[in-house]
Structure formats: C-alpha cells, structure tokens
What does this fold into?
Amino acid sequence: MHLLAELDNMARWIYNALLHLLLPAVYLRLFWRGRTTPAYKQNIEQRFGGHLHLPKHAILIHAVSLGETLASQPLVNALLAQYPHYPLIITNTTATGAERARALWGTKVHQCYLPYDYPWAMQRFISRCQPRLVIVMETELWPNFLATLARQKIPVLLANARLSAKSAQGYGKIQSLVTPMLEALSVLAAQDSATAERFLALGAPPAVVTVTGSLKFDLTLPDNLSERAEAIRESWQLAGRPVWVAASTHDGEDAIVLDAFKQIQQSFPQALLLLVPRHPERFDKVAELIAKQGFSVARRSQQQSVDAAIEVFLGDSMGELLLWLALADVAFIGGSLVNVGGHNPLEPAALSVPMVTGPTMFNFQQITDILVEAGALKQAANSAEIATVVIDWLKNSNEKRQAGTAGAKVVAANRGALAKHLAIIDKLLGQSDEFRASTHPTSKH
It folds into this structure.
C-alpha cells in the first residue's frame, strides 16, 4: 500500500512538472486561438484561478465543452427547480461551451471557466467558491482538481459517465494517475454497464460505481419548437421539398456531405441541404467550400432566407440545431466520418427523424447500437453509401416514418436517468451539509 502511494505521488509530481514546463505554451495557445475566437483572450485570469465575485457554497457543475453543456441541460434545469436556495456555478473549458451555457441559463447560473489543472490555480479557485458539491459531466477528470476537492472533503459526482474502449485503453497507460482520481469520487454514475466495467478495471472503488443510464435520453424539447419550425417551413415554401440536415459536421466531413448531396439531387432535384458545422470558427471556410462546389447558398448569420433557387442553407449560428432538425426528413450526424466519435443522435430521434451516420460513433456506441437495432439509424462509410440511405428513405415514406417513430420510442423507453441522478445529488448534498455543519457550526445553509 505504501509503495502504491509512493507511485501515485511520483506520477503526480511528474504530471505537475510537465504542466509547469508547458506554461509558456499554454499562454501562447490562448492568444493564438484568440485571433479567431476572441473569447479565448477574454477572462484569461480565470484560466489560472483568478476568478472574481464567485458565489460561495454553490453546486458546481463542470461541462467541458458544447456537448457536455447540452447533456447537462436536463440536470441543470432540474437543480434550478429543486434547489433554488443554492447558487449554481457552471464551469466550462471551451468558448463554445461557455457561450451555450450563458445562452441557456443567463443570470440563473454563474458561468465561468474552470482553471487549467495547475495545483495553485485549482486551490485558488476552490478556496474562493468553496462548493458544497461538484458535479463533473461525463469524463472530464483532472488530477489536481480532484485532489484539491478530496483534501477539502468536498463530494464529487461523476455524472452521466461514459468511457469508450479506446479511451479506457489510453487511461490504462497512465493508471497511476487515473486510479487516485477515481478514488477521489463520491459517486460514479455510469451511462451503461460496459462503462462501469471499464472504470472498475481502471481502479474505481466498486462502492462508488452505479449504473444510471444516460441523461441524454431525458432531453426536453422546447414548447414552441414545432410552431417555429412550421413558420420557417411556410416562409421558405418547403412543401414538397425534401430536407436533409447534416448536423455538427467536422473538418473533412463537409466535402463528403456535399458530394453525397449531389447524388441525392439526381433523384430529388428540389432537395434542400441544411449544413450545420460543429464549430463557429469553421463557418466561413464551409461557406467557401459550398460556393466552390457550385451550390447556391443562403447563410443564417446573414439572415438570408431560402427560396426555390437555394440548394444549401448554412446553419452558421449557435443554439439553433434543434430548429433545423425539426425541419428534417432525414438527418446526418457529424463527427462520425472522422475520428471524433460522433455526436448525440438522440435529438433527431426525439423529433422522429431517421438518421444516417458514418462508421465512427464510439462516443455514443451503446445508444447507436440501440438505434440501429430499432431501425432508426443506419451507418455508411462514404458519400455514395450515405446518398443511397437518404435516397431510399426519401423514396419510401412509410419506411422513413417507421424509422422516425422507432427512434422516438427508443428515447421514451430509456428515460429515467435524471431521477436517479437527482436522488444521488440529494444524498450527497445532505452529507455535505452535515459535514459543513459539524466543522462550521455557525454557518448558514
């Protein structure tokens, strides 16, 4: 046991030494990225724990990027309703995640950046906000962050935890760093049993691991979504026009999507492609690619509407993907033709939209397998295969309708993770408040 502790300390020492050697590069990267995304040059002090006016004794939720922020939405909404007397802090790492958090909740939460994992930066941050509970979304584990929380006896929930076989293999190479992090968790709420087994193999204590299902199944659609979609459908005169939405595409995928669309147009000349890149810094580049390929294009950022002459609509805005999916006959899920691992297929499923993806969906492997088995999702390896899937569904409206209905049934059948997470949170908050009361008898809750 003593030897294991020595190895853990040595691994942390090496990790921290490397972090500090990289400090100049970290600063340079922030300024470099800030050339195209100004948010990276703003609030630099927060990246190193220099936060001001943090609410104390809050529930802190860390959602690293856009995907985790969206996944946290049902949980955050429930916490705002169930614990209105507790402040809520949402931390992010990426500018897109931060922007989406502010758009979703505004002043209802305190949004800021989580510091980089320097021990002194994490200590400053945690000392300034003194959270009563920390909830980390999915798999965003940092050694100094968790060590700081453990020293201060702050409970930590790894919520909606997911771990692909590929990621588990990578973590296994640095197990002397990973195991202490897992031991610092109060509860690890895994999306599925395969994830739970992978975390256990990496050293997670069996007593803290539980399988709750995925929060992504508990997504709620905006009340006015169908009305907004219908208004756009009428404004753009989409009656009789097949609509294909390519959602959350990455660099390397847009050209494949556009090639597939050319093939779809051979069978459906009036088809409309709604192309929605994942990252805003790529919007202009994708617009240039669309024009270079010879398509007539309208851009959301320029408030351009669609008429019969427009072939491609570029959804170069943030926070409107659900609206575009609500217009879709068929959807493509990006991040699946490149080695990203795919994005959430449950939003189109909840909207009864059948999907096609590339072969790489390891971020959502179990969900993808369920949707494939139900007939709601098909996978394709290239533009020709993608076009074939889309054309087949557009030609066979009954099969398309059945596929969409199957996806919606999958979402409905798998709800329930939110209630399980809230039960865990309620218990951890009770333990946290009891501990705070025993160590600070005069403190108010």
